[in-house]
Design a protein that fits this description.
Helices cover 30% and strands 22% of the residues. With 257 residues, the chain is α/β, with parallel strands linked by helices. The radius of gyration is 19 Å and the shape is globular.
Length: 257
Amino acid sequence: MRVLILLLCLLGAPAMACGPDSDCAVDNGTYRIRLPDAPPQGAILFAHGYRGTAEGIMGNAALERMARDLDVVLVALQSAGEDWAIPDAPSEGRRPARDEVAYVQAVKADVMDRFGMDPERFMLAGFSAGGMMVWNAACKAGDAFAVFVPLSGTFWKGPPATCPTGAVIWHFHGTADAVVPVAGRQIGPARQGDVNAVLAMYRNDRSLHDAVPAPVDDLDCARWVGADAMLQYCLHPGGHTFDAGWLARVWRATFDG
């Protein structure tokens, strides 16, 4: 009888909504989400770095302020293990072999279903290993998001031969980055790819026009444009870091420009 009463109480209790302090579940993973105070103007999906967590992203005060200032939903993605499933990474074979592109698309669909979001106002961004995942997603599903923002990330080993769909990509990198150097570096049997080789591949693959200066305050930026794609590359003088304000600039240029 006591077990029956407990079961009835559980069945009658309202389901806990997911949010910044609790996980939202999709078929192949989880994520966390923070809604703005005003009606949402879109959503930024953000991928953490190596050994990071969605909880850590939700605790990032700069990202929270940026999202609130823009009135956008902040979605913190969560890797299945301590790293994203990135081809040729040192952790390959030692972490769940999840299809990350399917995962981010499932998260986008879930956010749309739960909160009625406009599918055309989604950004996918990520830092370090998360930026590597963003580059992979951009080359495999370039039409899934309005804009992709890899921060201090690249491909392992080297870029793919081609990107089947065009995408709008803003890449940010520090000239003094020693963790993911612009020129790449060897890590055991694996090697981080050269960022310049990645950019060259994308420019050639998508037939992007010659670079034009695109000054952005203290950043050294250049932009290439094509029929179905755009690439903006911004260098800053710092190391392995990012500024949440850069995401705000990309958002405004993409949706408010």
